[in-house]
Amino acid sequence: MRNPVIAGNWKMNMTVSEASEFVCEFLKCLKDFPDRVEVMLFPPFTALSVLSTALRSSSVKVGGQNMHWASDGAYTGEISGKMLKDSGCECVIIGHSERREQEDNLTINKKLGTAFSENLRPMLCVGETLEERESGSTLTVIQTQLSECLQGFDRQQIAKLLIAYEPVWAIGTGKTALPDSAQEVHKQIRNWVQSKFGIEAGQNISILYGGSVKPENASDLLSQEDIDGALVGGASLKVHPFCDIINAVKNI
Ligand code: PEP
To answer: Which of 8, 11, 31, 168 lies at a 20 to 30 A Cα distance from 102?
Structure first.
């Protein structure tokens, strides 16, 4: 059985003191969370150490929002997987649509390879733009992203991977995919994983939905068969809405 995963992507928000305040309040809510849920927080790089120290004795995992494919070297302004590990990270988002403006599937593939070798659990984001959706090419776009980004990996690596389906038109816009249309895409993603990496890989992989998830729509989305969790942007910046989304897992 797949455990639900709820992840908060803070993007370029929260100073170190704001992150510390958040975590103080958040720690008080942990006791009410359903046992099965896996919670992840992706703060900006500057708040990683403070957050991973504060959450060390909890089950909440901390991750980076991006990383470079090289482990070190002359890459001004970049962060390596080794540095994420050093800051207490267990996971990393790779290929978020806000990053895809500057990186292609080949680069994402290299980053995933580095994440696996650094023992970071990668969350690969895929999703179509509004134009692609309207032209009826959603599934082709997603299959291309999956096959190019996951080229060359084996079943052991795929067993560590998380996938987030994030329709680009739904991110930060307040527009959410209808639960049954998101479910349809999730099912296709699972079928694709199954066809390339086997039944077990397809059945075990967690596929999260992202795009304007809020306390009001979380239960409807999470109760879909192939939606195993949520990647939450805006609504993860405030403790109580984020906790309400985590607790929505109780309704499924
Ligand atoms: C995201 O940034 O991954 C995201 C889904 O953002 P939002 O929830 O704000 O749409």
So the answer is: 8
